[in-house]
Structure to design on (604 residues):
């Protein structure tokens, strides 16, 4: 019997199996942000165990409320800053070079195929796009990860999603992610990882793969995994060329060793043909309530939000600007663009994308998680509605009493132009 | 080890997420106690009042499927704990929430859907107490001294060890 990628990662990182079915893994990367880490730090200090297992394997960032909006968030940032300094954590990203963790850390080449990765953040599943096992955890798991470099998991089973067919015009990775969420349903992948396979995922860029892996958690999955291939290699090459003696074939064969075996066992196989897929959006308060945008025209909106770890990357901003060019936001609609990282912000500026979006009436802000979870940077008032490129439409997510419709950047801009949910194919 | 049991709060809905248990606007709090007043503040459930005495006096939550989905925030179990709720009984949980509960030495008990249906049918609607017998793996639902219903549950070996140790930090620190 062959193994899936995640089974290979578990086997290679297994430290201990204290009880049948519970596996303690050694960790390659422990990532930290200012919302869930300070309480772990405080607890370690209280226990007189303020140590880190390996400073080079810890990556830390201030991203959720960036820059701080009040005294409390400023204190959270300060705790992170001082902790990183006192432990010699060199990969710490403060204001001026920071950004949304799940865009920033890949951008810096921190995730490699076959890695084990945790973070106190549910969207850590994003990094599975690199062929890693990357899981969101709570503060206690994070604390033990920081101190001991281990984390315990029930070994997940694998759901294989075969993606085939060529996407139509204005159908993006986000639409694919929403369709997968609709098909698997909200809790349908609990205690599983989702493995994305097939020609359609193979032809996607790393940014598209990250968008899809990012939303694996919306089905309850532990991680969303892509096989590491030449596209992965191209993305990582600036960071790893030296490790492989500049030998791409050698790196590719190392990547290939992580691939799920042909005779690996899957809990479930789901086939999705993308050729008939339309631009989609959510309604209601659950991310699996997904419908074609052309059926949702009666929903008016107050705000458009473009950003987040799902869709705040440079390709997303290009996609948004392409629709916005030559148009204005509908009267009464507010538009906010938060490029996910400082590097993306600069690139978007150089390409003129920020100018296009600004001319269309968008406010371009700093890189932050911000409004995605209703913390800052575009919180909704009760009764207000937002067309958002984020990942969760939970009740109150973007502000108490607010409603969020999830969709692609192109669809969000199209909706902003029309003032109501709009299929982007109708905008010329 | 923590103590388990108490008055039951019935939440008759599936997919209750951690944003509903504790909204992100309170995640800048740096003490667990500060979360207390905001537990379940955004819960979408007809007739639910997060400030009602029955909510504030509860020690046990009984609910449906996929409880604690969404964000990884351990603030969700902390918000329950500072309100005296150390036990949740559900048909199923989101993985991270379930692990966070056990990592804090709290109980996330899973019962089959039929048992949960029966609990709602026979016990919800009037005040009921839940007694947890960890040694025997049973939960007992009582009203006015009379037992309405008893159910058996099992915990995984690791989960039981975390509950006995008081949490994952204690457990891990002595072994790894």
């Amino acid at each position: 019997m062959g193994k899936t990628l995640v089974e290979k990662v578990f086997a290679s990182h297994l430290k201990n199996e204290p009880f049948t079915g519970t596996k303690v893994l050694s960790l390659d990367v422990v990532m930290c942000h200012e919302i869930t880490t300070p309480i772990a730090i405080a607890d370690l200090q209280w226990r007189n165990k303020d140590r880190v297992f390996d400073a080079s394997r810890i990556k830390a960032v201030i991203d959720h409320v960036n820059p701080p909006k009040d005294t409390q968030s400023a204190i959270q940032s300060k705790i992170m800053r001082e902790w990183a300094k006192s432990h010699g954590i060199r990969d710490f990203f403060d204001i001026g070079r920071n950004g949304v963790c799940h865009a920033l850390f890949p951008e810096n080449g921190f995730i490699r195929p076959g890695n084990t990765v945790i973070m106190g953040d549910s969207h850590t599943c994003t990094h599975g796009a690199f062929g890693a096992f990357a899981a969101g955890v709570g503060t206690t798991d994070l604390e033990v990860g920081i101190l001991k470099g281990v984390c315990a998991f029930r070994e997940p089973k694998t759901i294989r999603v075969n993606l085939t067919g060529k996407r139509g015009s204005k159908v993006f990775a986000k639409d694919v992610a929403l369709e997968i969420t609709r098909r698997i349903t909200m809790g349908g992948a609990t205690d599983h990882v989702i493995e994305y396979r097939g020609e359609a995922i193979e032809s996607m860029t790393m940014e598209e793969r990250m968008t899809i892996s990012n939303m694996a958690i919306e089905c309850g999955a532990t991680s969303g995994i892509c096989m590491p291939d030449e596209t992965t290699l191209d993305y990582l090459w600036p960071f790893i060329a030296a490790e492989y003696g500049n030998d791409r074939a050698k790196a590719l064969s190392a990547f290939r060793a992580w691939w799920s075996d042909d005779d690996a066992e899957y809990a479930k196989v789901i086939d999705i043909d993308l050729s008939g897929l339309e631009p989609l959006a959510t309604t209601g308060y659950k991310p699996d309530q997904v419908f074609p945008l052309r059926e949702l025209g009666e929903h008016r909106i107050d705000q458009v939000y473009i950003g987040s770890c799902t869709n705040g990357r440079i390709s997303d901003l290009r996609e948004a600007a392409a629709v916005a060019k030559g148009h204005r936001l509908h009267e009464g609609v507010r538009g906010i663009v938060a490029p996910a990282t400082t590097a993306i912000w600069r690139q978007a500026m150089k390409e003129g994308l920020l100018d296009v979006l600004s001319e269309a009436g968008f406010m371009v802000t700093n890189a932050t998680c911000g409004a995605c979870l209703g913390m800052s940077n575009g919180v909704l008032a009760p009764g207000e509605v937002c067309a958002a490129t984020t990942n969760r439409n939970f009740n109150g997510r973007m502000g108490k009493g607010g409603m969020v419709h999830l969709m692609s950047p192109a669809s969000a801009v199209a909706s902003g132009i029309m003032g109501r949910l709009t299929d982007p194919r109708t905008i010329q | 080890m923590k103590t388990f049991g108490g008055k039951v709060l019935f939440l008759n809905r599936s997919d209750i997420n951690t944003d509903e248990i504790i909204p992100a606007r309170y995640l800048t709090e740096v003490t667990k106690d500060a979360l207390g007043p905001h537990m379940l503040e955004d819960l979408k459930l007809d007739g639910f009042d997060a400030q009602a005495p029955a909510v504030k006096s509860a020690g046990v939550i009984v609910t449906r499927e996929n409880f604690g989905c969404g964000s990884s925030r351990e603030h969700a179990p902390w918000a329950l704990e500072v309100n005296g709720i150390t036990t949740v009984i559900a048909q199923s949980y989101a993985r991270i929430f379930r692990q966070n509960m056990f990592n804090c030495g709290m109980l996330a008990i899973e019962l089959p859907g039929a048992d949960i249906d029966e609990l709602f049918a026979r016990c919800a609607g009037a005040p009921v107490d839940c007694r947890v017998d960890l040694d025997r793996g049973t939960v007992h639902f009582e009203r006015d001294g009379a037992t309405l219903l008893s159910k058996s549950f099992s915990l995984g070996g690791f989960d039981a060890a975390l509950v006995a140790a008081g949490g994952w930090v204690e457990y891990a620190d002595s072994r790894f």
In short: Residues 113-123 of chain B form the longest helix (11 residues). The beta strands of chain B are 5-11, 58-63, 87-90, 107-110, 129-133, 138-143, 146-152. The helical segments of chain B are 18-21, 53-56, 75-82, 95-103, 113-123, 157-165, 168-173.
